[in-house]
Amino acid sequence: MQSELFQNFIDSISSLTSEQRDILNTSLVSAQIEITEAVETTDSETLCSKSLSNNNTTHDVEKSILSKFAENPKCPRCKSHSVGRWGIRNGRQRYHCKTCDSTFNAFSGTPLARLRHPEKWSKYLTYSMVLRPAAAENGIDLKTAFRWRHRFLEVINNDQAEELCGITELDETFFRESFKGQREGLPRPARKRGNDPHKARKVPVMVARDRNRNTVDGVLENESANELCRHLNGRISIQATVCADAHLAHEKLADKLGFDFKELVTSAGQHVVEGIYHIQTVNSYHRHLKRWIGGIFQGVATRYLPHYLAWRRELTAANKLTAGRLVSKIAEHWCFQPLTVT
Ligand SMILES: [Zn+2]
Questions:
Q1: Considering the domain boundaries, does residue 282 fall inside one?
Q2: Res. 172: pLDDT tops 80
């Protein structure tokens, strides 16, 4: 748009009726989603937007959350199980906690609590991954939208591939340690923009990926065989052939876990062994992961890194996360496991 036209458009905003403002807001939100989705979605990669359009699934899942919760209701405030039924509101059973006297339903304390209508969940789950539209759509601030995003990501956090098979590539990459968003409890004075980024500690991240697009990843405390083993033990088939850089830790890991190890001396220019063994797939995974984290999110805090690894894992998996699966995971997680991110 020409700058003069744009200025006229801006000037006219103050004279819009409230109805016109609503229309404008809605258009801006949906335009923002399209833009963000275009950036966040590469080819067919999408966590929920398309797959979460099945409203029947969310309705069924609402019922399943309600019935699961009813089996063993727990107070979201004090975690007591000493609760009684307390009438029904908006079609949902309410409970009363005998310990702390609060009343709640199966959704209290979860981000879904604000959404009375399950048919909106698909939209909401999509939005929660895109902060600004999530905030605008749900009338919450960005901080809350961010917290909700991490509540969903926590649900898929431990969904590593069950077993890597066949040719599997293993390599480590590094992310600069970041305390983004953290104001208190910093181990050093807050860094100002422009300070030397090379001084920051590098956090090692391991990715093991087989050629069927199954992935196991993890943030490492160090680069030892034991640390790799902590993440990979039980997750690599003993029939797998693992390709990795010549590195003592990799050799030791192969001994411990018993897989066939194809060693590459990439530092000496050896990139392929026997025509099929290489680590180019996992290296390309690293490159896309870094571009995604650095570009879309402008870097992420180290403490949230596992969540973004999980998100990326889901985006690039052969077996993509569907609406039904995500929402049943949420049900499982919230009904049976405590949240660690609040
Ligand atoms: Zn209570």
A1: yes
A2: yes
Quick count: other Cβ atoms within 10 Å of Cβ 127? 25
Domain span at 240 = 167-180+199-316
Least confident piece of the model among 182-196, 213-227, 237-251, 280-294: 182-196
How many domains does one find in the chain?
A: 1
User: How far does residue 170's CA lie from ligand 1's centre (Å)?
Assistant: 47
Write down the residue that tokens 């063993």 correspond to.
Answer: 72
Give 190's DSSP letter.
P
Interval between CA 90 and ligand 1 midpoint (Å): 22
Which uninterrupted H or E stretch holds 306? helix 305-315
CATH number of the domain residue 222 falls in = 3.30.420.10
CA 261 – CA 243 distance, rounded (Å): 6
> What is the 155 CA–ligand 1 centroid distance (Å)?
24
Cα 76 to ligand 1 centre (Å): 7
CA 82 / ligand 1 centre spacing (Å): 8
Do the domain assignments include residue 247? yes
Domain assignment present for residue 33? The answer is no
**How far does residue 104's CA lie from ligand 1's centre (Å)?**
9
- Cα of 83 vs centre of ligand 1, distance in Å, is 8
Residue 131 lies in a domain: no
